[in-house]
Amino acid sequence: MKKLLAILCALSLVFALCACGESAAPAASDTAAKYTVGVCLDKATEGFVAALTEKLGDQVSINVQNASGDSATCATIVGTFVSDEVNLIMANATPALQAAQAATNSIPVLGTSITEYGVALGLDNFDGKTGINVSGTSDLAPLDGQADVLAELFPDAANVGILYCSAEANSKYQVETITPYLEAKGYHVTAYTFADSNDVAAVTTTACDENDVLYIPTDNTAANCAEAIHNVALPAGVPIVCGEENLCAGCGVATLSISYYDIGYATGLMAYEILANGADVSTMEIQYAPQFTKEYNAAVCEALNITVPADYVAIG
Q1: What residues in the chain have per-residue pLDDT under 70?
Q2: Which one of 37, 130, 239, 252 is most buried, counting C-beta atoms within 10 A?
Q3: What is the predicted pLDDT for the residue at 62?
Q4: DSSP code string of 280-315
Q5: Are strands 60-63 and 287-288 parallel, antiparallel or unpaired?
Q6: Phi, then psi, of 166 in degrees rounded to 5
Q7: Nearest residue to 114 (alpha-carbon basis) of 267, 240, 7, 254
Q8: First and final CA of the chain: distance in angstroms?
């Protein structure tokens, strides 16, 4: 189910529409203000909906808007939101955020499941606030911690291959950041890139042939292709450490992961502040997960005869 949700929600957009039409914050006397929210229920958007429902009750109605992993569809959806003069757009994953940024410089945009906002939005000297109509939450777990997980489970490995999509700027950022951490632990590190889903199996095969263990960062295309990666790596007997939970559930052995529900919930609280209290999105700090959990994929670990330490939690 988690793999299915990851595929369906790789590019999803959530919009908040105020019936008043002109102002994000309803007047004090306007107790009948209504908000329509489009949502795809992965863990992050589930948390987003929970927070808004808590705050706004029956003022919130739910409407599904899903780009199904297609960037062109994503841009079309955002264009419709802008034409409809919605009061807020919530974008789940980097391509959706980039589409929203390109479509409007006035409607508040909140992202969730974004790895690094400075990279995603092409911002120079990013300091935690974008200064534009965008804010939100990040799904980045500490990359030095990810390297620690790999070293803890595979101390005798010599060669580590990093597999990622070359079209995703956030993935490149993660690879450039984690590589020195892995090299400092004595691993020989090689990066392997695929352009899209069409060549992921072939690239994974090469990476498995040349390495003892693979690392895959938080990467939307890899998440969409988790089954294809798994079908190559498992028969080859090559374990994969992943950058996040959903990807690990599809093809990995372990991860240091955030709670996507928690960051979605935090995004919902940010949306409430914008809609109900008129908060300025451009001055809102990007928020990060407060805690991280070592998790493992029990089925893959069993198949590869890997025993994890007691402080790892099985992915449910």
Answers
A1: 1-12, 14-33, 35-41, 60-64, 68-69
A2: 252
A3: 57
A4: -GGGSPPEE-S--EEEE-HHHHHHTT----TT-EE-
A5: unpaired
A6: -65, -20
A7: 267
A8: 10
Burial class (CB in 10 A: 0-12, 13-18, 19+), 129: middle
pLDDT score recorded for residue 24: 38
Tell me the residue type at 55. K
Please tell me the distance from the alpha carbon of residue 50 to that of residue 272, in angstroms, as a whole number: 11
* Residue 111 · residue 99 · CB < 8 Å: no
Report CA Rg, the chain. Answer: 20
Question: Residue 312 in contact with residue 306, Cβ under 8 Å?
Answer: no
49: helix, strand or coil: helix
Alpha carbon distance 16, 309 (integer Å): 44
Instruction: Judge contact between 186 and 217, C-beta under 8 A.
Output: no
Whole-number pLDDT of residue 143: 96
β-sheet with 313-314: strand ranges across: 188-194, 159-165, 213-216, 240-242, 254-257, 293-296, 313-314
Q: Is 309 left (phi over 0), alpha (psi -120 to 50) or beta?
A: beta
The one-letter code for the residue type at 111 is: G
Query: Cβ(45)–Cβ(64) under 8 Å?
Result: no
Torsion of CA 104, 13, 59, 134, to 10 degrees: -40
